[in-house]
Amino acid sequence: MRCDLSALMRGAVGIATALFLNAQASAATLLREATIGEPPPLDVMLTTADVASVIGRHIFETLYALDSTYTPRPLLAESEREEDGGKTIVIKLREGVPFHNGKEMTAKDVVASMTRWGNVGARGKLLMAAATSVEATGKYEVTLKLSAPNGAWKTLIADVNGGLAIYPEEIAANAGNKPIEQKDYIGTGPYKFVEWRPNRYVEVEKFDGYKPVKEKGDGFAGARTAIFDKIRFIPVPDVGTRVSGVQAGDYDYAEMISGDLYESLSKDPSVQVQRTNAPIFGLFFMNSKQGILKDNYKLRRAIQTALDKSQALRVAFGSKELWNAEGSIFPKGTPWYSAEGVSSYSPHDPKKAKELAKEADYTGTPIRLLVSTNYQAHYDEAAVFTRQLADAGINVQMMVVDWATLLKMRGQPEQWDIFVTHHSFSPDPLLLTFLNASYPGWWDSPEISSLRAELIKSTDPVARKATWDKIQSLIYDQVPVMKVGDAYTYDIASPKLKGLNPNGPAFWNVSTK
Amino acid sequence: MWSYSLKRAATTTVTLLAASVIIFAFIHIVPGDPIYVLLGDTATPDQIDALRHQLGLDQPIILQYLTWIGHVTEGNLGRSIFFQAPVLSVIADGAETSALLATMTMIWVTLIGVPIGMIAAVRHGTWLDQGLSGAAMLMASIPTFWVGLYLILIFAAWLGWFPSSGYPSIFEGGIVNLRYLVLPSLALAAPNAALILRLTRASMLDVSREDYVRTARAKGIRPWQVVSRHILRNALLAVVSAFGFTFAALLSEAVVTETVFALPGIGRLVVQSILRRDYPVIQGVILVIVVVYLLINLIVDLSYRLLDPRVELQ
């Protein structure tokens, strides 16, 4: 009987413990974010897909991070010094920062990551093309030597999007060109990778060993505190479902809501609207390598002169609060804002456009405009411009394809004359794709080559701004690309969430009210 | 029956082989490239070539096909470029959702379509028949995505009775997770129930004009027995055939509903993989869909014999 009682008590204790643990487990807080779709592999060094960056920045970290004014601040780095006129950069790392596998981050990990980024990273060549060596000059010290100084080096390594995320040495060294495997999604971030269920979710959970910086959180910079125990990034491709899901309480946050819903959602008490502080902008690239627009600056200016950008922005983005017909490549309030050349931004003068086209010996040859339907805004802008150009006697032939086809075709200069894409906000001109001579469009005139070299090697902010003014003026003169205008995307969140990041979806420091 | 089944298995194998060639050729003819999608905007030609080589996409197309089909015969459908997981496990994950969604939809379709079709046939020519036929036309005409969005708005966002979207597996959360499939299955059932309703009605009207039905009535058999034993049973032959194809179509073609309700099903998987050119997944999924279609076709043919012993299988 005594024995039975003891067994009974043990059982009771066991059940109580199980119930307690179960209660603890169910008390784990979960944040559910509805993303626009399934991400590509989360090897953030390789890809510039936003959906991969949003998830990846919770797992992987960079040496520097951008604050709310898009200024780079130390994250995994502690400090830096420049020598030899900026050609040698010595970065001191923070000590005692653990990876998710428990190993401490050291200079060897940074060197291996930097080497891989330079070889295969989406934005690696911007900095590492000029690197002569990168070495661990101490357990926590990395020395990068460049053939010429680079005034934007810190900004170039301050974001995970195609950027220098720090991986453990063995993972970075063994990965090569292939995206790293899921088992190797090991970073130093406040959340660690748990699992990826195709078309269901990607789950990350709080990393208990995370070591934050001391400074207060600001944008993507500063201290990162994981308050939610787990985050699930759930692909919800339909925008209506993302909205209803937040309204119904099935999701806590939903990305990229369409412009036509902005006004009604702004008044809806069941959601809070989170408009981005950094605009994206549509771009129409001219083919500088081949075809009717190659070196034909007069015809390009004719095209630019015919257009009314406001009309395209209104059609593409709806509410006036979500777009701004701004000719400066960088928005007002940023250090790079410039008024150079903007009088040519959106003249909407079909008569003058006709005259310019005539001067360019244009005889009505179809201009092939490559556009994708995957991004509705691209298609809307292209459709409006095609109509406006027809009024000016310029014959545009739209070639509508899906995004995967466009990505391939735009690399073949014989296939197109203009292609449509968009650009996310850039904290430095050197990150602008159209300044990259190997990017489709291939703008590499002698004038831009010289100004680009000047911008890269200059380290003085005032001199760099003066160079940028000249480049913007040249953009309106040679028209390698046409900016459509600034568009402010917005997300929605449960009204219960507080501490949302103004730079974009990042859920450290986010809690419930 | 057995010799018939064997014969069908042989023709099925030939069909599968032909389908594999067509699937492989078709997806590789379509322009676009997974490497560009994977590496994104700023990839250089060197990076693109290097990754293409590593994934074996630079090999001659025939060699790529032979490698793939060789693996398929060993039960290996390859590895997803984007999910970094075996295609078979990716399909299995999606198949659970699609199979349950299709089954639940078919339950609604049967519960709504067959009885109402019967009523319409029995009350042929009356205002009730006209009303039911009109309602069926209306249900068949309304787009599924529209029905889906309104079901979400009313039953999830306003009333909060059902979840708005997603589907956590029943193996993780238990049978209660089937509530996630109630609204999508209703959205899918609307047009399909209308189809079955009209088919049941038309078949029953055809059969009711047969001599043996007239004889049964003349013998004084009760009207409901004439309907249930003599008319409905024979009319079901055509309906069962439609059931088979509807079920197969629901497994693979529910892409709009799966997108609206963010369901991790097969239809969405295949469309997403086509958009990203995830070749191994596209090839694997379509091959599995072909197999499912062939199997369902076989089951439907075999079921004719069970429903009507006069049918001979040759």
UniProtKB/TrEMBL annotation, chain A:
Its main location: periplasm. Gene3D superfamilies: Dipeptide-binding Protein, Domain 3, Periplasmic binding protein-like II. The keyword Signal applies. It is found in: Periplasm. GO terms for cellular component: ATP-binding cassette (ABC) transporter complex; outer membrane-bounded periplasmic space. It holds the Pfam family SBP_bac_5. The keyword Signal applies. It comes from the Bacteria. Belongs to the bacterial solute-binding protein 5 family. It comes from Bradyrhizobium zhengyangense. Keywords: Signal. This is ABC transporter substrate-binding protein.
From TrEMBL, chain B:
Pfam families: BPD_transp_1, BPD_transp_1_N. The chain crosses the membrane at residues 12-30, 99-122, 134-161, 181-199, 231-251, 281-300. It comes from the Bacteria. The keyword Mitochondrion does not apply. It is found in: Cell membrane. Its main location: membrane. This is ABC transporter permease.
